[in-house]
Design goal:
Elements: E1 2-7, E2 15-22, E3 27-30, E4 44-45, E5 49-57, E6 75-83, E7 87-88, E8 93-94, E9 98-105, E10 117-130, E11 139-149, E12 157-165, E13 175-184, E14 188-192, E15 203-214
């Protein structure tokens, strides 16, 4: 038997309310992250999974259409996460076993020290399976950890991503979004999130593919 719990906040320090019982996979309804639309990525459960792949987003606006190449208005990334599905009472999340993120924002206004903004994960700490994103037919995951700004050396910034595999092909269907919790020196608040989109807050891939793998 596993507890069905209502949990609060990103990296919350404790579970706050026991609302029922279930003999199924451990399910949690995490409070929405600040600024995230309430239509998708609000209900989660823990189970073993893996999400892999990379891609390109043309944000803004983050739709399935590519921007004019001369504008350099796009982002590229490679990312993967693996979890064995262990729920952590202290954080209110499913613990990640390992993962990585490399993110480059090519927009001219996001350049730091003469180069495109370059973010590398230094730890991946959680990975929650989203069960309320119907567009993501193969799987959807909310995950995150800490990262380093390669341009400046600023590090230990918390981040979260929303990751959507909507089947094949990935281009024009899969989605990805990122938010850095603390301000980036020289930029301030940073997020690439889309609303409306088929799976808010993810932006639609214009290149690449996300691949969800249930591992249980």
């Amino acid at each position: 038997m596993t507890n069905l719990r209502l949990l609060a906040g990103f990296a919350a320090v404790a579970a706050v309310s026991l609302v029922g019982w279930s003999c199924e996979t451990n399910r949690q309804a995490l409070a929405p992250t600040l600024g995230v639309p309430r239509f998708h990525f609000n209900e989660f459960q823990c189970q073993p999974l893996k999400m892999t792949g990379g891609g390109r987003i043309d944000y803004p606006p983050g739709t399935a259409d590519k921007n004019d190449p001369a504008t350099h208005e796009y982002e590229t990334f490679g990312a993967h996460v693996i979890t064995s599905g262990q729920f952590d009472e202290a954080s209110g999340h499913c613990l990640a076993d390992k993962g990585s993120l490399e993110w480059v924002d090519h927009r001219p206004e996001m350049r730091l020290n003469g180069s495109p903004l370059n973010l590398h994960a230094t730890s991946i700490t959680f990975a929650d399976l989203a069960v309320d994103a119907p567009h993501c037919t193969d799987g959807a995951v909310h995950w995150g950890g800490t990262l380093r700004v390669q341009n400046t050396g600023q590090e230990d910034l918390q981040f979260e991503v929303w990751d959507c595999d909507a089947g094949e092909p990935g281009v024009g269907q899969d989605g990805f979004a990122i938010r850095v919790i603390q301000e980036i020196d020289g930029i301030g608040d940073y997020a690439v999130m889309c609303d409306p989109s088929p799976a808010e807050p993810t932006c639609t891939l214009t290149g690449g593919n996300r691949q969800f793998h249930p591992t249980h």
